[in-house]
Write a structure and sequence with these properties.
Length: 77
């Protein structure tokens, strides 16, 4: 699963819970709903992230980036 952040469009902010329910039906695990700013965060199977963009009320779907820093004692490249 990959972490994602869904931005809800302005027309659907009053119904953000309904947007979240539709996202769950399409396989998203909802971790947090930030109704004040219109953001829903969670995770989904990688292949399913593009399907979420078709949910009514979804403005955008962004995947989380993971940065891994080597330990201090690792050899430099």
């Amino acid at each position: 699963m990959i972490g994602i952040t869904v931005t809800v469009d302005a027309d659907h902010l009053d119904n953000i819970e309904a947007v979240g329910a539709a996202l769950r039906l399409r396989g998203m695990r909802i971790d947090q709903v930030h109704d004040t700013i219109g953001i829903i965060s969670g995770a989904v199977v990688d292949e399913e992230s593009t399907v979420l963009e078709s949910v009514p009320g979804v403005q955008s779907v962004e995947t989380e980036n993971t940065i891994q820093i080597p330990p201090p004692d690792a050899d430099p490249q």
